[in-house]
């Protein structure tokens, strides 16, 4: 089976884990701090603004809680997002309001976000679909004009930039997922960026029970009763640790290598699929934009999309569609009418894309896509 996603871990990551074992400290410690600092350098931000957490979802929940949402407060987000974003808003007492997207890029434009704003809107939560930054600068400007918090779900955009600026640094808060399917993985993990220094310190505390200070050996050097607790507000334990941070540090060093290969894979797909009748490839990036190439998506007549996916699965190629529209999920209670999102959801298929794919793998996938689209198209035409 040619997988949709696949991590690239090897001897370097194993050696980093071995070093942690030799030091006999697996918890939150110096390697966590070093990983945070290295990622902050990658983004071009101060190291105290980045927090390594147990998951990207944990980061979203911390962010949503930090908004202080009351009943009726709304957070606008594209319907084509991962469900963790909507779950976080609901769990914090708010209401997700879904906006439409461009049916080709799957990213919302400024006008899509603006159309969903109401007097109850407190924040905008923006996903960069497949790693493409989209209109992040324009939406950031809109949020500043309206006095709204901008949150960037950068799970897909670990290496994306717009105008030379890292995706995730346009808004007030951002998160990245480092789960096993992501470009940079720690198995499970997440990174949080907070623009405001005071808010960053607060969320760091909330990620570890809300403690104002550590209670272990390090604090014993500055307090004669280091076991006493100071808890200004209640938090939870969602911090990262040195074991996974060690893996992350290696993965971050290898990120340029990963991105170079992903660009090669995308270019090969573009060449191999350029002339397939009835198949639309991802639109070109705007000038000045760099994508992380997390997804490679193709679009076709909705009447054949599901059949093509089934044919590819039977032929040993795993595909999927991400992300299923959240405004269609009953649990979120949405009555929004989003025609572009609905159209894209019926026509789009994500093909295998990871830096472990060989050129032969890509040609195999492309050949099977070509055959499945042709066969299903003939069958649909004859019906």
UniProtKB/TrEMBL annotation:
Residue numbers bearing the N6-(pyridoxal phosphate)lysine modification: 182
Keyword Ribosomal protein among UniProt keywords: no
Cofactor(s), by name: pyridoxal 5'-phosphate
Organism from which the protein derives: Streptomyces termitum
Residue ranges the record marks as coiled coil: none
GO biological process: polysaccharide biosynthetic process
InterPro entries hit by this protein: DegT/StrS_aminotransferase, PyrdxlP-dep_Trfase, PyrdxlP-dep_Trfase_major, PyrdxlP-dep_Trfase_small
Keyword terms, alphabetized: Aminotransferase, Pyridoxal phosphate, Transferase
SUPFAM superfamilies on file: PLP-dependent transferases
Classification of source organism: Bacteria, Bacillati, Actinomycetota, Actinomycetes, Kitasatosporales
Stated name of the protein: Aminotransferase
Family: Belongs to the DegT/DnrJ/EryC1 family. L-glutamine:2-deoxy-scyllo-inosose/scyllo-inosose aminotransferase subfamily.
Active site (record annotation): 182 (proton acceptor)
GO molecular function: pyridoxal phosphate binding; transaminase activity
Pfam family, one: DegT_DnrJ_EryC1
């Amino acid at each position: 089976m040619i997988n949709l996603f696949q991590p690239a871990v090897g001897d370097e990551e194993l050696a980093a884990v071995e070093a942690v074992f030799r030091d006999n400290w697996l918890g939150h410690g110096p390697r966590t701090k070093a990983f945070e600092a290295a990622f902050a350098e990658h983004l071009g931000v101060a190291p105290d603004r980045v927090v390594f957490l147990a998951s990207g979802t944990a980061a979203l929940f911390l962010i949503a809680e930090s908004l202080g949402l009351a009943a009726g407060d709304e957070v606008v987000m594209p319907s084509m997002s991962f469900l963790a974003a909507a779950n976080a808003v609901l769990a914090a007492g708010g209401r997700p309001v879904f906006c439409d997207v461009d049916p080709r890029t799957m990213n919302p434009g400024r006008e899509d976000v603006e159309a969903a704003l109401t007097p109850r809107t407190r924040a905008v939560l923006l996903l960069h679909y497949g790693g493409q930054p989209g209109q992040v600068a324009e939406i950031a400007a809109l949020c500043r004009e309206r006095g709204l918090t901008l949150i960037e779900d950068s799970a897909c955009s670990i290496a994306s930039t717009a105008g030379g600026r890292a995706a995730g640094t346009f808004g007030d808060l951002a998160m990245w997922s480092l789960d096993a399917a992501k470009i940079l993985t720690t198995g499970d993990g997440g990174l949080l960026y907070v623009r405001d220094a005071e808010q960053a310190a607060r969320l760091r505390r909330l990620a570890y029970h809300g403690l104002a200070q550590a209670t272990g050996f390090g604090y014993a050097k500055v307090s004669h009763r280091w076991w006493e607790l100071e808890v200004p507000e209640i938090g939870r334990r969602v911090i990262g640790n040195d074991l996974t941070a060690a893996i992350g540090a290696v993965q971050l060093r290898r990120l340029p290598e990963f991105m170079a290969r992903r660009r090669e894979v995308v270019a090969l797909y573009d060449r191999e699929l350029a002339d397939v009748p009835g198949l639309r490839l991802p639109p070109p990036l705007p000038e000045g934009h760099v994508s992380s190439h997390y997804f490679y998506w193709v679009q076709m007549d909705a009447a054949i999309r599901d059949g093509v996916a089934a044919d590819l699965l039977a032929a040993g190629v795993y595909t999927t569609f991400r992300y299923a529209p959240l405004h269609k999920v009953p649990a979120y209670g949405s009555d929004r009418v989003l025609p572009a999102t609905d159209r894209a959801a019926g026509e789009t298929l994500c093909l295998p894309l990871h830096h472990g794919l060989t050129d032969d793998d890509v040609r195999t996938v492309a050949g099977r896509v070509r055959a499945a689209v042709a066969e299903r198209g003939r069958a649909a035409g004859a019906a």
